[in-house]
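User: I want to check something. If I give you two sequences, will you return the structure for each one separately, not as a complex?

Assistant: Yes, each is folded on its own. Here is the first sequence with its structure:
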Amino acid sequence: MKTEVPQTLPGLTREQIEHIARAKGEPTWHIERRLEAYERFCRLPLPSPRQEDWRYTDITTLHLEDYSPVGWTSETSPQPPAEMPPFLTENPTVKVYHRAGIGLEVHLPEALQQAGVVIADLSTLLKTQPERLEQNLGRLAPIPGDKFSVLHTACWDTGLYIYLPPNCVVDGVIEIIHWFEAPGLHLPHTMIVADRSSSANIVQSFFSPDTAEMLVICAVEVFAHPNSDLRHTLMQRMGRASRFITSVDYEQKRDSRVVSLAVGLGAKLGRFVLQHLMTEAGAEARPLGLFFGDDHQHHDFRTLQDHRVGNTMSDLLYKGVLNDSAVSVFSGMIRVHPGAQHTDAYQANRNLILSGDAQAYTIPNLEIGANEVRCTHGATVGPVQPDEVFYLRSRGLDPATAEALLVMGFFEVALREVKPTDLRLSIQKLLASKLKGEAPKYFMDLAELDEEEAEAVAG
C-alpha cells in the first residue's frame, strides 16, 4: 500500500508560523498572506506525473517529513562555514554572501550606496520598510497552483532585495553566493527591482555540500521597469544529495531588455520554472539555458515567453548534454495574447545524448491569439554524429577527446552570449569538468588560453 505524503511540515504549524512571523515584526498583511498560503498547502497533494507540468518528473517519492524547515526551527550559527565556494567572476563589483537560514553579508561600494543602490536582507526590509514591498512582494512568484509554490509563499525564510535606482548603470557584476549548509528544507526568496533606464549584470550561484540532504524551494522575482537593461544568471551547483526547485519570473515593461541564463549542473533533481512576462511594447527577452546531466541526475526546465501586448520580442535557446542515466525535460511555451500583434518569438531546445541510457524529453508549444505575428519553435535530440567523430579522429584526436570537442562546440553558440568574459570562461570550465577521462583538463587549459588572449586584446 502506498504511504500518503503528509500535508504538513515537521515541527511547523499554522500557529507557529503566525507566532514566529509576529515575533519577527512582520506586517499584518504579509502574515495573512502566509497563513492563507499555508492553508492551501495543507489541502494540496504533492504534484503527480498525471499533471501535465510534472508528466516526466515524478516527485511522489519525496517525503516532506524528512526535511525540517531550517529557517524556522534552527538556531543561527555565528561560526563561519568550513568551506565557501569561490565567485564565478574574478573581481565582482558587488559581493554578496547569503548563508541560507543564517544571514547576509554585503560588500557594496560606497559610490553605489550614494547612487541609491540597495542590497538588503529581505526579512529585515519587510520589518523596517514594509511599504517598499507590499505592492510587489510575491506578486509574480511563485507560480500559483501546486504544493511547492504555496509552501514557498507560506514559509519563505531568508531572502535578498536588490534595487537599482533610475538611470543607474552598475559596471561589472553583482554576484551573490547562496550557500546552504544545514540539511533540511530551505525557502529563499529574491526580489530584484530595476528602475527606469537602469542597467546591471547580476549572477546568483546556488551551492551546498555534496552529501548534505536538502530540499531547496526558492523563488526569484525580477521587475524590469521601462528602458532597463538586465543580464541575470542563475547557476545551480547544488550537491548531489539535494533537490532544487525554483521559479524565476521577469515582468518587463516598455523597451526593457532582459538576458536570462539558467545553468543546471548539480543536484539530484533540478527544476527551473521560468517566465518572461512582456507587459508593454518594446520589451525584449533573451532566455538562455545550459545544462549537463550525468549519473542519475534529473534536470527539468519549464519556460514561458508570455507576450501580453504587441511589438514585443523573445528568443529562447536552451542546450543540454546528457550522459550515463541522466534525464532532462524541457517544456517551453510561447503564448501570444489576443491583440498582441507584431509579436516576434522564437524557441529552440537542443539536446545531445552521450549514452544509450540517457533520456531527453522536449515539448515546445505555441499558443497564438493574434494573426500578425512571427512565432516559430524547434527541438532536437540526438547522439554525437559518427562522421564528425571520424573527421576529428582523422586529424589525430583520440575518441574521447573528439567527443569532448564536439560537446564543448555544441555549447559554444549559447556560451558566446555570456558576458563578461571571465563569467563565460568559468561556466565553460564547469561544463568541461563533467566530461569523462582526461578531456576536462584539456578544456580547462584551453579556457585559460582564451582568457590570456582576451586580456592581450584588451591590453
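And separately, the second sequence with its own structure:
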Amino acid sequence: MHILWATIIKDMKILLRDRVGLFMMFFMPILFVVVITSVQNSTFELVNNNKISLVIYNNDNDSLSLKLINEISKIGLFKLQISDSAVTENKISSHILSKDALVALVIPKGFTKLIKNKAEEIATRSLSDPDSLNEKSTPLKEKADSLKMYYNPVMQASFRHSVDGALNSAVQVLQGEAIVKKLYEAVNQKEIPQDLEKQILFGQFPISEIPLSSSGNRTVPNASQHNVPAWTIFAMFFIVISLGGVMVREKNSGSFIRLKTLPASYMNALFSKQFVYLLVTFLQATVVFLIGNKLFPYIGLPALNLPADIWGLLTVTIVCGYCAVSYAICVGVFANTPEQSNGFGAISILILAALGGLLVPSFAMPANLQKFLSISPLHWALEAYYGLFLVGGKLRDIWMNILSLLGITALIQLFTLYGLKKKNLI
C-alpha cells in the first residue's frame, strides 16, 4: 500500500508540473462546451429570436398576394422585407449573396387570379355529376408562373426544408380558404359567414407536445441538457493526448525497465496512473457541470438542470472517466512515439464520437452506421447521461448502459495487458 501511495504522489507531481497540459485538459473543455452550447441554443431559439430574413418581391399586388404575405408573417419564422422594385436576377442576387436576406420569394403576376380560378374549378368539379369527374377537365386560360424561392447556398438543407414547408403551408391556407368560399357560395348562393369560415379553416384539432420523463417531470429539455453532457464525455476521452504521451515517454526513457528491477509490481504504476487521471476526468466533469449550472444563466445560455439522482450522476461520471483513462493507457502502450499516440488518439476519439452520436444524433445517422453504435464507449456514456439529464431517470433505469460501458472497459484493459506482455513491459 505504501508503494502504491508513493507512486500516486509521483504521478500527481508529474501531472502538476505539466501546466500546459492541465490548462488544455480544463480550459479547452470549458471553451468547447460554451461555444457548442451557444451555437446549439441559437438553433433551438431560431423561431423566437433569430428569425430567417426573407425578402418578398410581389409582382401581383392583388388581394390574395397581399394575404399570402400576411399569412407568412403570422408563421413567426421570418423577418420580412417587402420589395416594391422590379424583380431582376441581379436584384435578387444582390440581396441574397450580400446576406441582406437568406431567402427571397417572388410572387408572380396573376397569382390572385390563378388561385381564384383554381378554387372555382375544384368547386365546380366537386359539385358536378360524379361521372363527369372521370372526364378531362378544361385547362385554365389564365396562367401564372410558379412561386419562386431563391436561397443562399450556405443555408443547410434542414433549414431550407423548414422554409419550404412554412411557405407551402401559407399557400395551402389561401387555396383552402378560396375553395371553401366557392363551395359555400355555390351551395347556398351567398357569401360564407366569417365565423364559419374561421371555424372550418382554423378549427383544427390541437396537438400538445409533451416530453416523456421517467420521473414525471414535464420540463422541456434545453440546449444545455443536450450539449453539456455530450461534450463533457468528449473532453474526458481527450485526455488520451496527455496520458498517452506520458505512457510513451516512460517507455522510451526506460522507466518500465527500471521498474522491473524494483521489488514492486508494475501494476502499482498502472493503478497509480488510472487513479490520478480518473481524478482528472472527475474534476473535468465537475467543473463543466458547475459552470453549466451556475455560470450559463449569466452569459445568456439556459442553465444546466442537474438530475435528481446525484448518485447516478456520480456513478456514470466515474465509469465514463475510468473507460477514458483505460483507453488512453491502451493507446500509450501500443504507440511507439508521442506523435503516434497524439495522432491516433485524437483521430480515434473523433471517429468514436461520430459513431457514438455526439457529432450527429444517432437517430439521424444512416442505417448502416447505426449498426456500429454499440462499439463506441462514448455512445453508452452518452445514453447513460441522457437517461439522467433528459429522461429524468435514475440509476436503475440506466444500468444496461453502465454495464455495456464496463464491458468495453474490461476489453480495453485486457487488450492493454496483452500489449504490455507482448512488449515485455511486465
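Because they were folded independently, the notes below concern the second chain alone. Residues 2-44+216-422 form one domain. The radius of gyration is 31 Å.
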